[in-house]
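input
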Amino acid sequence: MQIRGAVAEGERGEAVFVPPAGTNGFFTTPVPVPGGLLGIDFPIPGNSVLAITELAGPASAIKFDFSDLSISIPVKVRLVNVLLGMDCHIGTNSSPVNLHLIVGATSPPPPNRPISGRVGTIVEAPPADIALRGNVNVENSFAVPGASRCGLGLGLINTLVNLKLGLPSAAGNNSIEVTNDVAIRNRP
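output
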């Protein structure tokens, strides 16, 4: 996952994300799901599944807080497979997976326990003025909604995807750790 763009000052002095022209500033690479649809790593036609993380909403939904190096971002995950179709999602724009990724210690609901991120190493990285390499942002207080629009029919495939993945999953049962680099360039 990459977030590219600029940060401008909003009307109330808040940091506002500005994506590159013609994009939402959120870029990802499809990731093969281990075991595919059947949960087995064997080359069976129709078994492979790709997971693609997408921004759930407009670019303005991406929020940065430079005081604690956190980022809040709503996402959804598209599952792509011949049987699931091209519009099978975990999360939607109206019911996303809301992540608040921090570098500090979390305070999750049980059964999760606190985890900690860390600030990376400050380095000079032209053309940026400064860069932080190896930041680790964490989050383990988020809920994950069930699947929607998977396959044809009356939702049977949604139910099967939910059973396979244990969805929906309440807050306190999920965790994410993102290692990242942040480059900052001060433009007049």
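quick obs: Residues 156-165 form the longest helix (10 residues).
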